[in-house]
């Protein structure tokens, strides 16, 4: 069955960072679709129907009546969204698809490794688990250049307060020595990831972000930590 493409109005357009914006796309009247947390939607502007771009949902399947995507200024679509998209504008939306899905089982530990805007689908993971009060453990290991590049910092900190099974860990790669940041510095490495693993057999690894980060994480987890690749799900771009 063909997927129903719907025109959706932008309800809100929120700047998360100077180069990152979240769009809340309002479902039209009568629109209902079954989808899963972790999937992506594909969008395009009415005046350029041949140019489409897929974005991970930063909302979750419990959020009804709207989709949220969080977009970094990158390429034609990302630049237009961040610099020009505003409430009232309309986009065509192809319904959610994809298999980058959280394994929400009580004995599982999800270690979610992200760089830059790759953290956006993990917001949906944590929202879902927190609202449903699940026993699933979720740890986000997030690599950014500086503290000014942390997307959803406030929301993730609040979710960590609300959900005892969720941890949000950030490492900064380009801070000056004079910066007051007291958290971790440097790239994601095997030792840091290993320090968060308890029961390796029940840990599922996710990596999302630029190709270099995702491929590096694959090598780290499989080759350095010896975790079977069947325990990994990857989502990369660029």
In round numbers, the mean pLDDT is: 96
Assigned CATH class of the largest domain: Alpha Beta
Strand segment tally: 12
CATH superfamily of the largest domain: Nucleotide-binding domain of ferredoxin-NADP reductase (FNR) module
What oligomeric state do the depicted chains represent? single chain
CATH architectural name of the largest domain: 3-Layer(aba) Sandwich
Counting helices, strands and paired strands, the structural category is alpha/beta
Please indicate the percent range of residues in DSSP E strands (runs of 2 or more): 25-35%
Describe the structure in brief.
The chain is α/β, with parallel strands linked by helices.
Description:
By secondary structure, the protein is α/β, with parallel strands linked by helices. The chain has two domains: 6-97, Beta Barrel (Elongation Factor Tu (Ef-tu), domain 3), CATH 2.40.30.10; 109-237, Nucleotide-binding domain of ferredoxin-NADP reductase (FNR) module (Rossmann fold, 3-Layer(aba) Sandwich), CATH 3.40.50. The protein is 21% helix and 34% strand. It has helices spanning 75-84, 120-131, 153-162, 190-194, 211-224, and strands at residues 6-17, 20-26, 40-44, 53-56, 66-72, 90-97, 109-115, 137-144, 166-172, 184-185, 203-210, 232-237. The chain starts with 5 loop residues before the first strand and ends with a strand. The model has no long low-confidence stretch (mean pLDDT 96).
